[in-house]
Amino acid sequence: MIIYKFGGSSVGTPDRIKGIIDLLRENPVRAVVFSAFSGVTDQLISTARRAAAGIPEYVEEVRQLERRHLDAVRELVTVHQQSNASAVVKMTLNELEDILQGVFLIRECSPKTLDFIQSFGERLSNFIISRALTSSNLPCEYLDARTVIRTDATFGSALVQFPETNALIQAHFASHPLLQIVTGFIGSTSSGDTTTLGRGGSDYTASILGAALKAGEVHIWTDVDGVLTADPRKVPNAFTQPEMTYIEALEMSHFGAKVIYPPTIQPLMQANIPIRIRNTFFPTGTGTLITNLASVNPDPIRGISSIGQVGLLRVEGAGMIGVAGVAQRIFGTLARNGISVILISQASSEQSVCFAVAPDVAQKAVDVLEVEFTTERELGRIARITADTDTSIIAIVGENMRNVPGIAGRVFQALGQNGVNVMAIAQGSSEFNISVVLSRADESKALRAIHDAFFAPGSKTIHVFLVGLGRVGAALVDMIQKNRESISDRMMVDVRLVGIANSKQMYFDLNGIDDPDWSKHLAQSGGKMDIQGYLDHIKTLNLPNSVLVDCTAGTQVNAHYAEVLEQSIAIVTPNKTTNAGSMEQWRALREISRKRQVPFFYETNVGAALPIVKTVRDQTESGNSIIRMEGILSGTLSYLFNRFGQDASFSEALKEAFDAGYTEPDPRDDLNGLDAARKILILAREAGWLLELDDVHVTPAIPARFFEAPTVDAFWKMLPEADAELSARRNKAAASGKKLAYIAKVENGNASVGLTEIDANHPAYHLREMDNLLAITSDIYSTRPLVVMGPGAGPAVTASGVLSDILRVAEVRV
Question: Which residues are catalytic?
Answer without folding.
Answer: 679
